[in-house]
Amino acid sequence: MAVKADFMLDAKGLACPMPIVKTKKAMNDLEEGQILEVQATDKGSKADLAAWSETVGHQYIGTTEDGDVLYHYIRKCSNDAMVENTHEHTIANEEIVSRVATGGSILDVREEAEYAFGHIEGAKSIPMGELDSRMNELDKNQEIYVICRTGKRSDLAAQKLANHGFEKVYNVLPGMTGWSGNLTTSI
Predict the structure, then answer these.
(1) Of 121, 162, 112, 167, nearest in space to 142 by CA
(2) C-alpha dist (Å) from residue 96 to 91, 111, 152, 167, 185
(3) Greatest distance between any 2 Cα atoms in the chain
(4) Ramachandran region of residue 2, left (φ > 0), alpha (ψ -120 to 50) or beta?
(5) If exposure means fewest CB atoms within 10 Å of the residue's CB, which of 6, 76, 89, 102 is most exposed?
(6) How far apart are alpha carbons 24 and 39 in whole angstroms?
(7) What DSSP character marks residue 184?
(8) pLDDT for 145-172, tens place per residue?
């Protein structure tokens, strides 16, 4: 059964954060109750768009797949719920190495392939889409520095952790795009 959408957004070939940026802009043009279909090829967009929708108050209906293309469906909810929150605690890339040395941990929420081709040594990989089911792998008493490619996905993940009782969570900015330290590969 095909889902009927009022508008379609082509985000194929775009990587995080661009599917979210384009979706946010497209949602501004919709009326309450209308449904946007977002076509994307970035596997991370599945978790990213669902988390973004939740933080701004839109209804994430779901995703279907056809080959390499993901079809996301998002229903616009009233503007009253559209205050986009950001995680209040941030930390710069340069600070995390010294903080980890004193007992913190780095949580990389990028997709497996992104992590495999280059990550900060010692970082724990839990892709955003797996975070709900794998939160039990994290220590609530430890400082957690959440990182992704640009800081958008990690912001959503940090909010999710904070909403589940993690009090020492920091979003790392600007993320891996601004990382100048050594990288480890696992391929």
Answers:
(1) 167
(2) 7, 21, 17, 17, 19
(3) 53
(4) beta
(5) 102
(6) 14
(7) B
(8) 999 988 988 999 999 999 999 999 999 9
